[in-house]
User: What shape does this take?
Amino acid sequence: RMDFTSIGDTVNLAARLEGANKAYATDSLISEAVWEKVSGEFLCREIDLLTVKGKSEPVRIYEVLKSLDQVKAEDEKLVKDWETALKRYRDRKWAMAEKSFAKIAESYQDEAAEVFIERIQLFKQNPPPPRWDGVFKLSVK
Assistant: This one.
């Protein structure tokens, strides 16, 4: 009897991330394990910490933006601004996070920032539980 669980998990996650691109308005999402292997060659930004259907452990996901040899100062600024906005979001500083994501959406025509703005607006009306760990449950296949 052979056990294909690790291969199955990898394939399942890859399929879920492909579907998640639509939810995040991104083109190329990768897991943290892949990011660790390619971060020396590509500029990436952390997008979210999520659990995918069929898994209970959260996965940190990244968007591949550009090959490092094509990166401009504006690209690096986007990543830095994004990190600030994401930290504010995870710290539940909704107004500050919303303002940061709005600036990113406007300055870079970044649709992923719009996704977080919508999520923040929902959280402002229905806050996550007090022990919220910043993990988003992705139900997209």
